[in-house]
Amino acid sequence: MVHADKQEVLSHNFSFLFNLTYLVQFNFSYTRSFDTLGLEKNKNSSDVSRFVLLGLSSSWELQLFLFFTFLLIYVVIVLGNLLIVMVVQADAHLFQSPMYYFLSHLSFIDLCLSCVAVPKMLGDFLQKEKTISFSGCLAQVFFLHFLGASEMFLLTVMAYDRYVAICNPLHYLTIMNNHLRLQLVFGCWCGGFIHSITQVMIVIQLPFCGPNELDNFYCDVPQVVKLACMDTYLVEVLMVSNSGILSLVCFLVLLFSYALILITLRTHLHRGRSKALSTCASHLTVVSLIFVPCVFIYLRPFCTFSVDKVVSVFYTVITPMLNPLIYTLRNADMKQAIEKLRKKQVASHCFAKG
């Protein structure tokens, strides 16, 4: 039965990836002929074919130190999040649990999110000229917002999952069945795609004629929009209302959900309270690490602050590293599953040698 459920989930994931690839191709071809806000896309109207990334520092010594620091962090991100995905997929008990199923998707998103900006940043630390092509910049904008919005929706779903588990435990498995959790995850990815494609559809129409310096280590909407050769006030309002309001609304929904959970834990639930509080504390920590930087960056006019790059580092690098540490070090089920997987690998290795 477990094997059949796994096959159903895996086949659903493969079909989703196929459909998502088709949607990406369709939407990018569609945006070539789409005129957003009356701005016409003309290849000859833009003199900017690439952008210069100012990066985190101009000091060679500091850049060398940052290279090794972020290289170590990147290795931790990849290994930590990959470990969570593998453990959940390998452990039948965790795979059948909606919470750990959502956690594996969260780790996969963090893994992909770090791969969008960090490898480019590491390469730029060792180069004198830090440039990125216009198409490469658009790709970074698309995938950062696609993965970032998907993560926000997924965290909201995880809050709903904890609410049902704690406030309605007798009907938890009936409500959070395999069909519903597949629909919720599919909705998170689709919501992230829709959000991201609207960002790209607006940015791709803007004329750029110089300057071309982005005061960051990756391409993001606020910095790119300010380089457009036109009045971008309306575009900035649309961007803020899209990304900023999305971040704020999801954050408020999450806080409201966890407030209800804490009230339930305080007034009704006595057995297993410490474990439930530990789980909620882990989730709230992750939520704060993700949403506070996003609200700070996107829910305000596109003016530049010196702290913006630090906040960007926190969102794209530090948070994906902390997530697996928070969920594994504070979670007994994950630690037991990791130990079980380790023993299984050791036993299979000894059997192969014998």
UniProtKB/TrEMBL annotation:
InterPro entries: GPCR_Rhodpsn, GPCR_Rhodpsn_7TM, Olfact_rcpt, Olfactory_Receptors. It is a multi-pass membrane protein. Keywords: Cell membrane, G-protein coupled receptor, Membrane, Olfaction, Receptor, Sensory transduction, Transducer, Transmembrane, Transmembrane helix. The chain crosses the membrane at residues 64-88, 100-122, 142-163, 184-208, 244-265, 277-299, 311-329. Residues 80-327 form the G-protein coupled receptors family 1 profile domain. The keyword Lipid biosynthesis does not apply. It is found in: Cell membrane; Membrane. GO terms for molecular function: G protein-coupled receptor activity; olfactory receptor activity. GO terms for cellular component: plasma membrane. It comes from the Eukaryota. Pfam families: 7tm_4. SUPFAM superfamilies: Family A G protein-coupled receptor-like. Belongs to the G-protein coupled receptor 1 family. This is Olfactory receptor. It comes from Mus caroli (Ryukyu mouse). The gene is LOC110308839.
